[in-house]
Amino acid sequence: MAHSGVVSETTSQPARGRLTQRLQQWLPKLALAPTAAMALVGIYGFMFWTGVLSFTGSTFLPSYEFVGFDQYVRLFGNARWLTACTNLAIFGFLFIFCCLAIGCFLAILLDQRIRNEGVIRTIYLYPLALSMIVTGTVWQWILNPSLGLEKLMHDWGWTSFQFDWLTNPNMVIYTIVIAAVWQASGFVMALFLAGLRGIDPAIINAARVDGASLPRIYLRIVLPSMRPVFFSSVMVLAHIAIKSFDLVMAMTSGGPGYASDLPAMFMYSFTFTRGQMGLGAASSIMMLAMLLAILVPYLYSELRGQRNG
Amino acid sequence: MKPIRHLLAAIGLSFVLSPAHAGQVEVLHWWTSGGEAKAMGVLKEMMEEQGHTWKDFAVAGGGGEAAMTVLKTRAVSGNPPAAAQIKGHDIQEWAKLGFLTNLDDVAKEEKWDQVLPPIVSDIMKYEGHYVAVPVNVHRVNWLWVNPDVFKKVGVEVPHTWDEFFEVADKIKAAGIIPLAHGGQAWQDATVFEAVALAELGPKDYTAAFVNHDMDVLSGPKMVEALTKFHKIRDYIDPNAVGRDWNVATKMVINGDAAMQIMGDWAKGEFTAADKVAGKDYECVPAPGTEGSFTFNIDSLAMFKLNNEANEKAQMDLARTILRPKFQTIFNKAKGSIPVRTDVDMASFDDCAKASMKAFKATAENGGLVPSMAHGMATTSAVQGQIFDVITNFFNTKDADPEATAKQLASAVQSAL
Amino acid sequence: MAQLQLKGIRKTYGNAVQETLKGIDINIESGEFLILVGPSGCGKSTLMNSIAGLETVTEGSILIDGRDVTHAEPKDRDIAMVFQSYALYPTMTVRENIAFGLKIRRMPKEEIDAEVARVAKLLQIEPLLDRKPSQLSGGQQQRVAMGRALARRPKLYLFDEPLSNLDAKLRVEMRTEIKRLHQRLGTTIVYVTHDQIEAMTLADRIAVIKDGELLQLGSPKEIYERPSCRYVASFIGSPAMSFIPLKVERDGGNLRASLRSADDDQMYVPLPEKLAAYEGKEIHLGIRPEHITQPLAHKAGQEATSSGKFRIEVTEPTGPDVMALIRINDTEVHCRLDPDHTVDPGEPAELMIDLSRAIYFEAGKEARIDV
Amino acid sequence: MASHAEKKLTPSRILIYATLLLACVAYLIPVFIMIITSFKTTGDIRSGNLMSFPEVWSVDAWIKAWSSACTGVQCNGVSGFFWNSIKMAVPAVLISTALGAINGYVLAKWRFRGSDIFFSLLLFGCFLPFQVILLPMAATLGKMGLANTTTGLVIVHVVYGVAFTTLFFRNFYVGVPDALIKAARLDGAGFVTIFVRILLPMSVPIIMVCIIWQFTQIWNDFLFGVVFASGDSQPITVGLNNLVNTSTGVKEYNVDMAAAMIAALPTLVVYVLAGKYFIRGLTSGAVKG
């Protein structure tokens, strides 16, 4: 049907009913009102305020002396911001890609009628329960050359083993990818597993009868039908990537130098510790712009898809 | 229902019992490492002795980054703490925005103008009125030395950078880390500041980091300073990244490393490990900075409150901080020297005595300079830009000192 | 029981350009069983929802027993509905499902119990009362859904394709059961289906809807025998009515048309005089399969019947009949043959065409020519 | 789900099992390290390595972390912070879940002109970097007189959690047949009755998902906790941070790890006990497009 709501939109004809009837009509909107108010103030009001700040020369605390696009010009002349953006691109891509690949792969394996599936699932999922602060602390410890993996290998007799990514400005961003993937890939696995369970077994059986091999069935038939799961995962992961703050803070504090800086860290440090609130606001507006670039096409396809469905 | 009634009764009772003048002081600080926390504990006890309640508001980590964020949000929400650990330029900024309260009455009563050196009291004043209380004076340009290591390797403690590199080579050859370091931006800057002070001298140091003279910032001396600074990379261990300063100090204490360039708060760590100055460890001025004193003054800024009892407590806090008794106990625990020049130094250790001597001497001869790395020299914006350039330079293997000097100048320019 | 009047019902969704309902007028008498049929997307479900009050109409009014309920809430219309998906509340037992509406209406507990018992007995679902819907078979769920509707003794029952989710055998059983219930309780029912056999067997009257328009409203017999337009004619009846193009000619005093078989054998059939206006023009002849048969003795010699030889292309035995496909005037035509009278595909057979029930359409037009 | 038919151990199945087990090890190692470290003594940590078992299993570090480790000036361990977190997380989780359920119900079953746009705009809230809102939120809470109260912190978590809970519930309710709502309306049930009597009893799986998700998010949050809570109402993450950063030279890794484990324990327990409901809930519609 073209229209999937239970109740059609209120038509132009006014209700001639009694008060209770009108109340019934208004109840749904009334029920949304608290959330609407919260979103209006807490999301859009504050966003607007930040937008305003980005056009001011605010330094230490907000001020309202307008300077036009100065802050944006400065932002893009700032080497650290460019590093942060590059890092986000590397981190975001690798993080999303690895999580999807690992999560999907493990989900398919788990879908093969595995014994003790519940236990294994829980093991994959539990890192999500940890806070990024804890994850960061532990991984910092494991990857630290003098305490962790490298020392362990040396102790075990593999003295030529070297793993110094954490202290190497060119490689440090990858250590953050490792920790982040460790934390989030189990969740992606859960999403994919949920998706796999929703697939009609008849389709797989049909493909089997047609003589397709199992890997081929997954590659050609099952995975393409998991598009919604795929999208949900990308959305969740993208938002983790863009918001990544605690993890970097706990693992590297953006170092060595500012080699592992990310936009969220940049924004935080300029707004709150550097006394350059205007610049910080400009950077957060840029972050929102990046988000929009990812989100708008998604929401568009999402909502349009549902209307058709 | 019963427990609630009990609770209400208890609350009511506590109001009745507490002395009428007693208030609450909430103090926001990031003194959470061993010596510091102990020193803060002293203040807490002294306030409680006066019948006030101490509400500890510690925000650890990041050299106060998190604490500043918290302070700003608290101030914006109209609910600042009574006192907060704010220093240097930031005091002026907060005062300018009208957040800070006037301490002139207490100051007059306690004769602060007479007992504080002008260079200290100037920082505490906004438009001639006291708005903050100095707690201590740190000397930043110290080199901490483990004498056992030097004895074992058979070298002398260095007094210039050239000597430093010579000595460091030998120590390194002996399989010991020459310089304990923590790879955090402010620690990088602390070391850089020491090198820069040695190369530039106090006058040009001030020109560069306080007055932001572009010619000095990008000049040949700065290039030389950067070159030496970069060379230090070879004498630290690769695991320095992200290491906290006190962990680095511990390496010196344990003999894993020979030296550390760090402010005298490091002494708190030595003391906490039962080490004695002059015997188990030595403090010498950082190479080439013998006649200079890079100061870092911690202070508590007092915020405007709207509760009389709490205001009273706040004034008592200000008073207590500058009393000689607290100054002595606190600074001995923290490793710094008192801000009052009239405090009896007899019970202090050798390093503190030396520091006080240097403080007084350099105040006379112009060798007393504000620490750039600790927010004494310039605004946090400029400081941040310098940090970015310095730390990136230090962490890049084949960085070009000349280009970096130019970059430094333009980075400072952009934040002005 | 109640009477239902629909007056000029129009419905346009949101900012859609197309109207979903284009002015529907139907009067349903008390105790009448009305069936709405039409292809999917024709608006019959929208009409149903509008009657129930689940959707508002853009224009027109709905009256139940003379009371205007156009803007009344669904619960104030005293209507019950049985859904295609049954829509049983999954977390409630069968008993609770049936009692839910009664509880909401604050009926005393004893009365609710009595009512549930009555309905359960009526539908023979007493053993199921304490089960959850997920523990029931499709047919059982269907009964419970009906039970829920019956429990409130509403003025009007709406059935929205209630049998579509059942397998064929169960569907026939339930069809009979619904018919029996209707006869026994004398309820007013509006019933939506796209199954024309259900429509024919159950309805007192059938409303055929297409593209939001009411094409024809009438008894099953009327709809079957006197369809108002080509669409209704083709929609009702299985296999569908065949439409044969032919040219109206005058031969002497009588109108006639020639029918040509696939083997180019030609025969002439007489046409009614009322088609005189179409002389020399092409018209379409609508004829149902049962009117093309093997020669029948009792019809032989009647004015409207004629015989000819046609090659049988395909045969489909159904048991009681054999459906066969022949070709007349290059058009495929269905006919219904006697299974005892064997014909072989590919072989010619002598067939009798009875035009007494035939209907005629202008070429390329929907409307029927009145003869 | 398909029945667990006993399958023969073919080489390919052995390979599957081996891969799965290898992944298990990879996922478990960090927590394994945390746990064994937390049971080591300080001497043990220095002499042994990352993976070596403690020579003596000691719970001292746990006791110290819970009740006597220093977090700034105070040395009362993280126990106080732990209860603060509970006081904050429980109401925040319940309120945001309840609001999400109502919103999801309206957005799925009572759509009106603009409700889709409302939903999109709300979804965007999921993705807002939270640093952006610190200052304005602080000012707003201050004006409301809720600055530095647990109530204020709860409100912040509700505001920024409701987008996710709404998403979960909406997607779940979209999967509930419309006919059910229609049937209930004909039965005379109104907006509230349908929700309470029909939909809520069916929503157990998604409620589980929401509670688990929200609890994890709120419990693990650091940023809001450090900024919007004052001294004696700070949550456990802030306590952990202060504890880790409060050290006297030697980093007491065993105490740090024990404190980290204490901080992580509630969420870990939730995942281990209720993980299957989480998966089940996801399966029942939370992830559908």
TrEMBL record, chain A:
Please state every residue range assigned to the domain named ABC transmembrane type-1.
85-300
SUPFAM superfamilies from the entry? MetI-like
Q: What is its main location?
A: membrane
Q: Which Gene3D superfamilies does this chain map to?
A: MetI-like (1.10.3720.10)
InterPro entries in the record, alphabetically?
ABC_transporter_permease, MetI-like, MetI-like_sf
Per UniProt, subcellular location reads as: Cell membrane
* Residues spanning the membrane: 26-49, 88-110, 122-142, 171-196, 217-242, 277-300
The yes or no answer to whether the keyword Cell membrane is present is yes
* Keyword Membrane listed: yes
Q: How does it sit in the membrane?
A: Multi-pass membrane protein
Keywords noted in UniProt: Cell membrane, Membrane, Transmembrane, Transmembrane helix, Transport
Q: Which Pfam families match?
A: BPD_transp_1
Source domain of life: Bacteria
Tell me the protein family, please. Belongs to the binding-protein-dependent transport system permease family.
Q: What is this protein called?
A: Sugar ABC transporter permease
| Species, as recorded | Marinobacter halodurans
Automatic annotation (TrEMBL), chain B:
- Family that this chain belongs to: Belongs to the bacterial solute-binding protein 1 family.
* Annotated compartments: Periplasm
InterPro entries named in the record: Bact_solute-bd_prot1 (IPR050490), SBP (IPR006059)
PANTHER family, per database record:
ARABINOSE-BINDING PROTEIN-RELATED, BINDING PROTEIN COMPONENT OF ABC SUGAR TRANSPORTER-RELATED
Query: What role does it play?
Result: Part of a binding-protein-dependent transport system for a sugar.
Instruction: List the signal peptide residues.
Output: 1-22
Protein's recorded name: Probable sugar-binding periplasmic protein
Alphabetic keyword roster:
Signal, Transport
Q: Which organism is it from?
A: Marinobacter halodurans
Species lineage, top-down? Bacteria, Pseudomonadati, Pseudomonadota, Gammaproteobacteria, Pseudomonadales
TrEMBL record, chain C:
Query: Matching SUPFAM superfamilies, A to Z?
Result: MOP-like, P-loop containing nucleoside triphosphate hydrolases
Q: Name one GO molecular function term.
A: ATP binding
* InterPro entries assigned: AAA+_ATPase, ABC_transporter-like_ATP-bd, ABC_transporter-like_CS, ABC_transpr_MalK-like, ABC_transpr_MalK/UgpC-like, Mo/tungstate-bd_C_term_dom, NA-bd_OB-fold, OB_MalK-like
What SMART domains does this protein map onto?
A: AAA (SM00382)
Give the ABC transporter domain ranges.
4-236
Which NCBIfam families does the UniProt record give?
PRK11650.1
**Can you name this protein?**
Sn-glycerol-3-phosphate ABC transporter ATP-binding protein UgpC
Gene name tied to this protein: ugpC
TrEMBL record, chain D:
Q: Which CDD domains match?
A: TM_PBP2
Q: Which residues cross the membrane?
A: 14-36, 88-108, 117-139, 151-173, 194-215, 257-279
Q: What is its subcellular localisation? A: Cell membrane
Topology class, membrane: Multi-pass membrane protein
Q: Provide the ABC transmembrane type-1 domain boundaries.
A: 82-274
Pfam families to which the protein is assigned, alphabetical: BPD_transp_1
Q: Keyword annotations for this protein?
A: Membrane, Transmembrane, Transmembrane helix, Transport
Q: Does the keyword Cytoplasm apply?
A: no
| Primary localization class, coarse | membrane
Q: Which PANTHER family match?
A: ABC TRANSPORTER PERMEASE PROTEIN, GLUCOSE IMPORT SYSTEM PERMEASE PROTEIN GLCU
Q: Which family does it belong to?
A: Belongs to the binding-protein-dependent transport system permease family.
Q: What is this protein called?
A: Carbohydrate ABC transporter permease
Q: Which organism is it from?
A: Marinobacter halodurans
The organism that produces this protein has a lineage beginning with: Bacteria, Pseudomonadati, Pseudomonadota, Gammaproteobacteria, Pseudomonadales
